[in-house]
Structure formats: C-alpha cells, structure tokens
Specification:
By secondary structure, this protein is of the alpha/beta class. It contains 6 helices and 7 strands. 42% of the residues lie in helices and 17% in strands.
C-alpha cells in the first residue's frame, strides 16, 4: 500500500509562510500513511523542483524510513516551473535520497516518453512513469492543450466552462469552507467525491 502526497497549490518558493504551510500538510499526511501501514510514500504531480524537494525532505523526516517515490508533472515546456530540466531535477532528487523519480500526469505516453528517456540517462535508480491516456502530440503535448478536431477549440475549455458554472452556483449557496493546517479549503464537492470513493469500495 502506498501513502500519497502531492502538490499543495499553496507552496511559493521564497515565501516562508507558504513553505511552512506546505510542510505542515506533508507532515500530517505522511504521518497518517505511516500509522496506516503504508509500504512506501508517493509524492507526485509537482511543477516546482523546490516543492518536490520539500516533500522528499518531509518523507525522510516523518516517513519512518519508508521508500520515497517522487515525480513531476510536465506542462507545456520541458522544464520545472522554477527552471530546471526534468533530467536535472530528477537527478537532484535521486542524489538527495529519493528511491524512485520520474513523471506523472499531464502528458500522454508519446510526449512523456522522450523526457523519460532523458531522465534515464542521468539517473541510476528506478524511474517511474504514469502518463494520462490521451494521444498527445509534440504540438499539443499535454491533455490540457489538446484541440477538438471539429471545432478547433481546446477540449479543456469545456471543463473550464463547467467550472465557471459551478462557481456561479457556489456563490448562491452557504459557505462550506473550513481550514486545515491554516489553509482555506472548500468542501463544496466533497460529498460527491466521498460517494464516488465509497461506491468503488475505497
């Protein structure tokens, strides 16, 4: 069984308050995973090397010796948000003690595999790869950039429009916000999420 942590959306490089908030989130989730008997910890979908590095540090500190799998998301460019190539970012994580490094989400197999090949050249240990099941191309390297062949519009625009409609609905309903480790969170869609999880037996 794997424990899991991921990008927090609150992390900001150079912002001590945001960094400490992310650190507290990681610590809490890692300790839950350890208490529940996880065999290893997955830290995934990081855009920033600095946040991935923080996640690894927290696994080393609070993970009771469990192996760490750390992976990035590759958006439209072949670098992290803070300017490292993915091979260099993965190499640094491996040297810092990550047991497995690699990429997940965002790109389909065709546009993720070239980056994985480059990561393989500089890293000595196991490499992880979890692409999305989309036929991404060099011109449209991520699932978010895929275009509808009939209309010529981004497929992701449909989801953005649905999100805008949900926001309009939420503005007319009572607030469902709470705070976890000092960060505002929104419970608006949590019941549906839990219903889906329980219906799948998770």
């Amino acid at each position: 069984m794997a424990g899991n942590i991921c990008n927090t959306t609150v992390f900001q490089k150079g912002n001590d308050t945001a960094i400490e908030a992310a650190r507290a989130m990681f610590k809490e989730q890692i300790e839950w995973a350890v208490e529940s008997g996880a065999d290893y910890i997955v830290a995934e979908t990081f855009s920033d090397y600095a946040e991935a590095e923080l996640a690894l540090q927290c696994i080393k500190l609070h993970g009771n010796g469990l192996p760490a799998v750390v992976s990035f998301i590759a958006h439209g460019t072949d670098t992290t948000a803070d300017g490292l190539t993915f091979p260099e970012a993965c190499k640094r994580l491996e040297e810092a003690g990550a047991d497995v490094v690699g990429l997940n989400c965002g790109r389909g197999p065709k546009t993720m595999m070239p980056l994985i090949n480059e990561i393989r050249k500089v890293c000595k240990g196991p490499i992880c790869m979890l692409p999305v099941p989309y036929r991404t191309t060099p011109d449209q390297p991520t699932m978010q950039s895929l275009m509808d062949p009939e209309t010529g519009t981004e497929l992701n625009e449909r989801e953005r429009e649905r999100e805008r409609e949900r926001e309009k609905v939420s503005q007319t309903q009572p607030s469902t916000k709470f705070t976890m480790t000092g960060i505002p969170c929104d419970l608006q869609y949590l019941p549906n999420t839990l219903t889906t999880l329980f219906s799948k037996g998770l």
